[in-house]
Write a structure and sequence with these properties.
Blueprint (H helix, E strand, L loop, with lengths): L2 H28 L8 E3 H5 L6 E3 L5 H15 L5
Antiparallel strand pairs: 1-2
Length: about 80
């Protein structure tokens, strides 16, 4: 793979990761949850042979509890 091809591949992974972060941010906002550290893991985007990673980051205890309640509700079929 040439340098140009690696750069294009990295740019594509970066775009996909940006879109995923935006969708996650919108989805969480739709249920009243904000993850302040939600972002792209830039180091993973630079690797030539791996997929980009999304860093969900850190959140406070209240947010963690609300997330767990939301997930529990989805898993139980209650729709959150």
């Amino acid at each position: 793979m040439t340098t140009t091809e690696r750069r294009r591949a990295a740019a594509g992974r970066m775009r996909e990761a940006e879109e995923a972060v935006a969708r996650l941010r919108d989805g969480f906002a739709g249920v009243g949850i904000t993850l302040p550290s939600l972002r792209i893991d830039l180091a993973s985007c630079a690797a030539s042979d791996s997929a980009a990673l999304v860093d969900l980051g850190r959140c406070n205890l209240d947010t963690a509890l609300r997330l767990s309640q939301l997930l529990h509700g989805k898993a139980a079929g209650h729709g959150g």
